[in-house]
Amino acid sequence: MESPDIMSSNVNITDSNESGNMQHHKSEDFSDLRDHVIANFQKPNLPNINVPEKIIICLDICYDNQNSLYRLGDGTTFTPVNMLKRILDFFLYSKHAINKRTEFALLVLKDSEPCWLQNFTNNLKDIISVIDYLNAEESTSEIFDFEKIFQILKQEIQIPEYCQADCILPPPYVVRMIVLYGRSNCVPQIPQDDPYFIYLKKQFYFYTDILLAHEEDCALYKCEEIYDALQDLDNGYSYVYEVSRNATKIHDCVAKLLAHPLQRPLQKNTDYTFGCRY
């Protein structure tokens, strides 16, 4: 006769525990959300507007291993440089569809020298035709000096000036450099004392994003050293990704780079899940 009461008591205890766990999870979720909001308030007070972008595609055309391949689900294979070209096509067409005033320039990283190949243009045919005719080169250098890139940028770009008194007014455009680095044995050298690099890191309307596409067996290469070196380009507002020979992941990474610098959160606060969390 007492069994029903015992069962009822157990159910109540369980419900109470579940309720406590739910409250605990909600408290954790609220705490995470609060931290994200505070972190974003720490960003400079910039207008959250989709102003035109001037995007510098900084494309590495060198490879370490000529037998290294990306493989799609249907069995199609791509060399590392051809895969970077493929995802660039996707990126260029997608950004152009979002805002047709977006302009693109092309800066190519050869074995030891950068080369400015295409001035800013919003004509996709112009820049895609230049990219299509690029040939891959074998990497023979152990270091790549980014100071040469900064020298080119100093000559080729103008960055809108940020004025705190007028911070709510949108700039005419923002400038973003996207570094697509494909080498696994050539370590970038980022001169922290370079005057123009110091200037770039202080500009609120200049951004640098990074996608490192490296070889799979990092024990045989300098992948970690290269990744750590590229982090020096980050002024706190960059998006930085790394991927090995995974065709799906490299497409996912370049899709995340479509976000406008003035409208995206800090990378550590991004959330790409769908649906309600509760």
Give an account of the 3D structure.
The structure is a single chain. By secondary structure, this protein is α/β, with parallel strands linked by helices. The chain has two domains: 41 residues; 208 residues, Rossmann fold (3-Layer(aba) Sandwich), CATH 3.40.50.410. Helices cover 37% and strands 21% of the residues. It has a six-stranded mixed beta sheet, sandwiched between helices. Helix 2 runs antiparallel to helix 3. The protein is globular, with a radius of gyration of 23 Å. The two termini are 40 Å apart. The relative contact order is 0.16. It is found in: Nucleus. This is BRISC and BRCA1-A complex member 1. Keywords: Cytoplasm, DNA damage, DNA repair, Nucleus. InterPro entries: BABAM1.
Key features?
Rossmann fold, 278 residues, alpha/beta, single chain, two-stranded parallel sheet, globular, 2 domains, six-stranded mixed sheet, disordered N terminus
A few lines on this structure:
This protein is of the alpha/beta class. The chain contains seven helices and twelve strands.
Strand content: 15-25%
Under CATH, the topology of the largest domain is which?
Rossmann fold
Number of strands: 12
What share of residues is helical?
A: 25-40%
What is the rounded distance between the termini?
A: 40 Å
